[in-house]
Amino acid sequence: MRKKIVAANWKMNMTQAEAASFVDTLLRELGDANDVEVVIVPPFTAIAKVSEALGALENIKVGAQNMYWEKSGAFTGEISAAMLRELFVRYVVLGHSERRMLLGETDEIVNRKVRAAHEASLHPILCVGETLEQRENGRVEEVLSTQLRGSLAGLGVKEIQETVVAYEPVWAIGTGKTASAEQAQEAHAFIRRTLAEIADEGTSNKIRIQYGGSVKPDNARTLMTQPDIDGALVGGASLDPRSFAQIVQGAAALAEK
Predict the structure, then answer these.
(1) How far apart are alpha carbons 156 and 105 in whole angstroms?
(2) What pLDDT is recorded for position 20?
(3) How far is it, in rounded angstroms, from Cα 42 to Cα 251?
(4) C-alpha span between 64 and 70 (Å, rounded)
(5) Beta-bridge partner residues of 211
(6) What's the pLDDT tens digit per position in 127-160?
(7) Contact, 223 vs 213, CB < 8 A?
């Protein structure tokens, strides 16, 4: 059985002081959630503070929102995998739609980052998803297949298995709109079939696929009951530690069944 994974993507929010306060409240609210893997993904400036606040806890990991594919060099403003490892980062979100759309990241760029992450023993959370126009034009499967194949090109079976995929329909991110459980499951099932073609069925069945896109406490559990949805990549609701704790607890309740 695939262990649920719930990640908090804070995006460009939270100072160091706010991050420390968030973790303190989250730990009080969360209680025992060892059946779920929790990842907190702060901005670069708060990573060290979050790691410090979590201490030796093993069931809550730290992630980063991006990284560059080169190990070092004249790349002003970029962060390397080695720099993240030094801050005890375990996961890194790559290919988020905001970076694809606002900063022009292509599948080739995402692929370079995914490969560099694996070389540094970081686990990528690879984001894929279609726009509203692409969905309305019946291109969902075409877009997802292209993004998956391009972003995972050249990876071995072990690397693919250790990649988390996050399906984030672009039209549902930050809009308050959420894909229905049926729509989300349909996309997740297609992603899993595509992963089986890229690797093999056994590997595909082990890969965790999250849903992201206006995830909230009142819809997260319904989404995560779907057979191919293995967790959530939470945006706005992750800025409230109590809301985020409720989402994690919902995932934990499903794991206990």
Answers:
(1) 23
(2) 97
(3) 21
(4) 16
(5) 167, 232
(6) 999 998 999 999 999 999 999 999 999 999 999 9
(7) no
